[in-house]
Design a protein that fits this description.
This protein is α+β, with helices and mostly antiparallel strands and about 180 residues long. It is elongated. The protein has helices at about 10-20, 25-40, 70-75, 80, 115-125, 135-145, 160-170, and strands at about 1-5, 45-50, 55-60, 65-70, 90-100, 100-110, 130, 150-155.
Protein backbone atom coordinates (compact mmCIF):
# COMPACT_ATOMS: atom_id res chain seq x y z
CA UNK A 1 0.00 0.00 0.00
CA UNK A 2 1.12 3.54 -0.69
CA UNK A 3 -0.08 6.04 1.92
CA UNK A 4 0.73 9.64 0.97
CA UNK A 5 0.27 12.44 3.47
CA UNK A 6 -2.01 15.36 2.61
CA UNK A 7 -0.41 17.54 -0.04
CA UNK A 8 1.03 14.83 -2.28
CA UNK A 9 -0.13 11.93 -4.41
CA UNK A 10 0.68 8.22 -4.38
CA UNK A 11 2.62 8.71 -7.61
CA UNK A 12 4.75 11.55 -6.16
CA UNK A 13 5.49 9.53 -3.03
CA UNK A 14 6.41 6.40 -4.96
CA UNK A 15 8.50 8.32 -7.52
CA UNK A 16 10.52 10.06 -4.81
CA UNK A 17 11.05 6.86 -2.82
CA UNK A 18 12.09 4.99 -5.97
CA UNK A 19 14.55 7.77 -6.87
CA UNK A 20 16.42 6.97 -3.67
CA UNK A 21 15.67 3.25 -3.65
CA UNK A 22 17.14 2.63 -7.09
CA UNK A 23 20.58 3.24 -5.61
CA UNK A 24 20.17 0.66 -2.84
CA UNK A 25 20.37 -3.13 -2.88
CA UNK A 26 18.15 -3.52 0.18
CA UNK A 27 15.13 -5.76 -0.55
CA UNK A 28 12.67 -3.04 0.56
CA UNK A 29 14.23 -0.52 -1.83
CA UNK A 30 14.19 -3.08 -4.63
CA UNK A 31 10.46 -3.69 -3.99
CA UNK A 32 9.70 0.06 -4.01
CA UNK A 33 11.50 0.54 -7.33
CA UNK A 34 9.76 -2.49 -8.83
CA UNK A 35 6.33 -1.12 -7.83
CA UNK A 36 7.11 2.32 -9.30
CA UNK A 37 8.18 0.71 -12.57
CA UNK A 38 5.09 -1.53 -12.66
CA UNK A 39 2.95 1.59 -12.34
CA UNK A 40 4.81 3.16 -15.25
CA UNK A 41 6.20 6.02 -13.18
CA UNK A 42 9.20 8.02 -14.35
CA UNK A 43 12.00 7.58 -11.81
CA UNK A 44 14.66 10.25 -11.44
CA UNK A 45 17.69 9.22 -9.42
CA UNK A 46 18.38 11.30 -6.32
CA UNK A 47 21.82 12.90 -6.06
CA UNK A 48 24.34 12.77 -3.20
CA UNK A 49 23.09 9.32 -2.15
CA UNK A 50 24.01 8.20 1.36
CA UNK A 51 23.12 5.03 3.26
CA UNK A 52 22.85 4.69 7.04
CA UNK A 53 23.25 1.00 7.89
CA UNK A 54 20.10 -0.32 9.51
CA UNK A 55 18.29 3.02 9.16
CA UNK A 56 17.69 4.17 5.64
CA UNK A 57 18.96 6.17 2.73
CA UNK A 58 19.08 9.87 1.97
CA UNK A 59 20.02 12.19 -0.84
CA UNK A 60 19.06 15.27 -2.74
CA UNK A 61 15.84 15.13 -4.71
CA UNK A 62 15.66 16.40 -8.31
CA UNK A 63 14.03 19.57 -6.90
CA UNK A 64 17.10 20.07 -4.69
CA UNK A 65 15.65 19.23 -1.28
CA UNK A 66 16.95 16.67 1.17
CA UNK A 67 15.00 13.42 0.89
CA UNK A 68 15.02 10.40 3.19
CA UNK A 69 13.66 6.86 2.91
CA UNK A 70 13.79 4.45 5.83
CA UNK A 71 12.67 3.37 9.27
CA UNK A 72 10.70 5.58 11.65
CA UNK A 73 13.81 6.17 13.75
CA UNK A 74 15.67 7.36 10.65
CA UNK A 75 13.08 10.05 9.91
CA UNK A 76 12.99 11.36 13.48
CA UNK A 77 10.21 12.63 15.66
CA UNK A 78 8.11 14.46 13.07
CA UNK A 79 4.44 14.70 14.05
CA UNK A 80 3.33 13.04 10.81
CA UNK A 81 5.62 10.06 11.47
CA UNK A 82 4.43 9.71 15.07
CA UNK A 83 0.78 9.84 13.92
CA UNK A 84 1.15 6.63 11.92
CA UNK A 85 0.01 3.48 13.72
CA UNK A 86 2.42 0.56 13.72
CA UNK A 87 1.79 -1.74 10.77
CA UNK A 88 0.21 -5.14 11.26
CA UNK A 89 2.50 -8.12 11.96
CA UNK A 90 4.03 -9.37 8.74
CA UNK A 91 3.86 -5.91 7.15
CA UNK A 92 7.00 -3.81 6.72
CA UNK A 93 6.77 -0.04 6.54
CA UNK A 94 9.21 2.34 4.92
CA UNK A 95 8.73 6.10 5.23
CA UNK A 96 9.70 8.76 2.73
CA UNK A 97 10.06 12.50 3.18
CA UNK A 98 11.02 15.28 0.79
CA UNK A 99 9.39 18.52 1.89
CA UNK A 100 5.65 18.16 1.34
CA UNK A 101 6.06 14.85 -0.48
CA UNK A 102 5.92 12.40 2.35
CA UNK A 103 4.18 9.26 3.50
CA UNK A 104 4.74 5.58 3.96
CA UNK A 105 4.80 2.47 1.84
CA UNK A 106 3.66 -0.84 3.32
CA UNK A 107 5.04 -4.14 2.04
CA UNK A 108 4.13 -7.69 2.91
CA UNK A 109 6.49 -10.62 2.60
CA UNK A 110 5.35 -13.41 0.36
CA UNK A 111 6.51 -16.75 1.67
CA UNK A 112 7.57 -19.22 -0.99
CA UNK A 113 5.53 -22.42 -1.00
CA UNK A 114 8.74 -24.43 -1.07
CA UNK A 115 10.06 -22.91 2.19
CA UNK A 116 8.34 -25.19 4.71
CA UNK A 117 9.27 -28.49 2.99
CA UNK A 118 12.83 -27.30 2.37
CA UNK A 119 13.35 -26.31 6.00
CA UNK A 120 11.83 -29.63 7.18
CA UNK A 121 14.23 -31.50 4.88
CA UNK A 122 17.19 -29.49 6.20
CA UNK A 123 16.21 -30.23 9.79
CA UNK A 124 15.86 -33.94 8.91
CA UNK A 125 19.43 -33.79 7.53
CA UNK A 126 20.63 -32.55 10.93
CA UNK A 127 21.18 -28.96 9.85
CA UNK A 128 20.35 -26.14 12.23
CA UNK A 129 18.50 -23.24 10.61
CA UNK A 130 18.17 -19.80 12.20
CA UNK A 131 16.37 -16.80 10.73
CA UNK A 132 18.07 -13.46 11.38
CA UNK A 133 15.76 -10.55 10.64
CA UNK A 134 15.39 -6.84 11.20
CA UNK A 135 11.63 -7.30 11.49
CA UNK A 136 9.66 -6.81 14.68
CA UNK A 137 9.06 -9.83 16.92
CA UNK A 138 5.44 -10.39 15.81
CA UNK A 139 6.38 -10.34 12.12
CA UNK A 140 9.35 -12.66 12.66
CA UNK A 141 7.22 -15.07 14.69
CA UNK A 142 4.54 -15.08 11.97
CA UNK A 143 7.06 -16.02 9.28
CA UNK A 144 8.76 -18.59 11.53
CA UNK A 145 5.41 -20.23 12.28
CA UNK A 146 4.42 -20.23 8.61
CA UNK A 147 7.58 -22.07 7.56
CA UNK A 148 7.96 -24.28 10.63
CA UNK A 149 11.13 -22.56 11.86
CA UNK A 150 11.96 -22.94 15.56
CA UNK A 151 14.97 -20.64 15.88
CA UNK A 152 14.88 -16.97 14.94
CA UNK A 153 16.30 -13.63 16.06
CA UNK A 154 14.46 -10.39 15.34
CA UNK A 155 15.03 -6.64 15.48
CA UNK A 156 18.57 -7.04 14.14
CA UNK A 157 20.58 -4.47 12.25
CA UNK A 158 22.91 -5.70 9.50
CA UNK A 159 25.93 -5.55 11.81
CA UNK A 160 24.04 -7.70 14.37
CA UNK A 161 23.52 -10.35 11.68
CA UNK A 162 27.20 -10.30 10.78
CA UNK A 163 28.08 -10.61 14.48
CA UNK A 164 25.81 -13.67 14.84
CA UNK A 165 27.47 -15.35 11.87
CA UNK A 166 30.94 -14.56 13.26
CA UNK A 167 29.86 -16.00 16.62
CA UNK A 168 28.90 -19.30 15.00
CA UNK A 169 32.09 -19.46 12.96
CA UNK A 170 34.22 -18.78 16.07
CA UNK A 171 32.32 -21.57 17.87
CA UNK A 172 33.45 -23.95 15.12
CA UNK A 173 30.15 -24.09 13.25
CA UNK A 174 30.13 -24.41 9.47
CA UNK A 175 27.90 -21.57 8.36
CA UNK A 176 26.04 -21.07 5.11
CA UNK A 177 23.92 -18.00 4.60
CA UNK A 178 20.97 -17.45 2.33
CA UNK A 179 19.62 -13.95 2.14
CA UNK A 180 20.82 -10.44 2.11
CA UNK A 181 23.05 -8.44 4.44
CA UNK A 182 23.97 -4.92 3.47
CA UNK A 183 26.46 -3.07 5.64
CA UNK A 184 28.07 0.30 5.35
CA UNK A 185 31.53 -1.25 5.32
Amino acid sequence: AVEPETGCTEAELLQGAAGLGMQSLHPVSVAVVREAKQRGLRIVEAKDFSSATGGGVSGKSPAGGICRLGRRSFLGDSAWVQSKPAPAPGVTEVLYEDGKVRGRILLEDEIRKSSRPLLAWMEHQGLKVTMLTGDREAAARQVADAVGLKDFRYGLHPDDKVAAIREWVQAGEKVAMVGHIVTGK
